[in-house]
Structure formats: C-alpha cells, structure tokens
Design goal:
Layout lengths: L9 H25 L21 H6 L1 H4 L7 H9 L30 H4 L21 H6 L2 H4 L1
C-alpha cells in the first residue's frame, strides 16, 4: 500500500510542539514561583504599615483617606514582596495628563499601586487586579498615547 503524506500530525506535534509546551510551562512555573517573595500584605489581618504610613486603627477610622496614605518608598517595598515581575508603572509621581476618577490618585495627586490595581480584595473582573481591562492595552491607553508605550 502506498504511503501518503498527511501533513503534520500527532508525531510532528509530539516531536516539535510538546517540548516547546513543556519549556513554556516550566518558565511560567518558575516565574510564578519567583513572583511574590514577601509576606502577603493584601490579607485583611496583615500589617498595614507594609504599604501605608498609618496603622490599621488610623486607616479604618478614615477609610476615605487610607488610599492617600501610601509609604513614600512604595516602589522598593513592592519589589520586596512581588519581585521583579517585569515592567511596572512608577509610583509616587504626578501624572502628566488628566486621570479619570476610576483610577484614583493619592491625596497629594500622585500615582500609587492602587491607581491601576485593586489591592485589598475588592472584586476585580480583570487579570492582575487591574481597574480597567488591559488585554489590549486599554488601561495604559487611558492615560498614555500608543507612541509613548512603544
């Protein structure tokens, strides 16, 4: 019986695709394992001073002001807990362009982690706890032009 070429089949996928899939899986697992390295400060019973300039009692007494009381050195603190998870927006800076109310700034008008992310267990419909869907850059393009991001 004559053997016909059937195109790439299971054998081709196992020979080429499976090792690549295993490599990607390994890299993802390593990245996740290397991600959060510090204590989980997002828990309700965590030490608020890990990110804020006030203790729990003061923050709970005025929840509205709590978001405006981040530590001045929040970027280095973020790296201690989250590691270097890739590009991240700088915090503690004043935005150049107007920012919509859905992206809250600190009391001083500075960008903080909570400008773009939910961090206290709020319902977050999107990955990475972002406040605006970002799979196609929607969050970033809320404040930035595409040319700035390339």
């Amino acid at each position: 019986m004559e053997e016909r070429w059937r195109g790439p089949g299971v054998g081709t996928w196992i020979a080429g695709g499976l090792p690549a899939l295993l490599l990607v899986g390994t890299l993802v697992a390593e990245a996740l394992a290397a991600g959060a390295t510090g204590p989980n400060v997002h828990r309700p019973d965590a030490d608020c001073r890990a990110c804020h300039t006030a203790d729990r009692d003061a923050l709970e007494a005025d929840r509205g002001a709590a978001g405006g009381l981040p530590a001045a050195d929040l970027d280095p603190r973020r790296i201690v807990c989250h590691g270097n998870e890739g590009p991240s927006h700088h915090t503690g800076i004043r935005p150049v362009k107007p920012v919509p109310e859905t992206l809250p700034l600190s009391a001083e008008g500075l960008i903080t982690c909570t400008t773009c992310h939910f961090v206290h267990g709020e319902p977050a419909p999107f990955m990475d706890f972002v406040r605006i869907e970002n799979s196609r850059g929607g969050l970033c393009l809320t404040c930035h032009e595409l040319a700035e991001l390339q």
